[in-house]
Design brief:
Blueprint (H helix, E strand, L loop, with lengths): L1 E4 L4 H12 L8 E2 L7 H6 L7 E3 L5 E3 L1 H11 L10 H27 L8 H19 L11 H16 L10 H10 L3 H4 L6
Parallel strand pairs: 1-2
Antiparallel strand pairs: 1-3, 3-4
Bound molecules: glutathione.
Glutathione binds next to α3.
Length: 198
Amino acid sequence: MRILTNTTSPYARIARIALGEKGFDLSGTEIVNPWADDPALLKLNSAARVPTLATGEGLPLTESLLILLWLEKKVPEPSLLAGPLDRTISLAGRAMGVVDAMANIVTNTMQVDPGFGEHRVGLRRRRTILDGFRALEADPPAYDGGTPDVAVIVTIVALDYLRLRFRDAPWAPALPRLDALRAKVAERPAFETTAPYI
Ligand SMILES: N[C@@H](CCC(=O)N[C@@H](CS)C(=O)NCC(=O)O)C(=O)O
């Protein structure tokens, strides 16, 4: 299997953590630049986005949560959906909304308009980030060790992406309970080896 990623994408990290937690070897991961239309990436995925996987047969798999769904069917144990299903999906969806809002600001600021963050739509995305994190901080996903579920994975990916991209933002919230959750998974190889960097 080939795994095409970059070093910052929260979507790619969700897929990579899920693969790692399911026991896949991440050492062959290929780092590409989706914004430079990397030929290897474009050949597999006309959307030129990461994550993009290629199965042993060369079939492209895209979209972080579809990859997670595929993994869950392909390798049911350990499950990434072991907790109470409705709550897990609800929390994961909330964290995914935060990830989407942050990625939207970053993409638009870097690729379209440096002032996007203060634009009406940018401020709307900021509201999503703040409301989403506030709710997750008030009621974090449970984690008592072992394989984390998808809600924990997406929440930690969101938290690390906040710190990567919005560390100096005056509006970035303090999140002590989520930091405590992060400390519990930080040394798991799937999290450690996929830590984002610029
Ligand atoms: N919905 C996709 C989003 C993937 C995505 O937008 N990845 C970004 C990196 S964070 C990308 O490759 N962007 C390049 C582009 O949009 O052209 C997923 O969940 O995998």
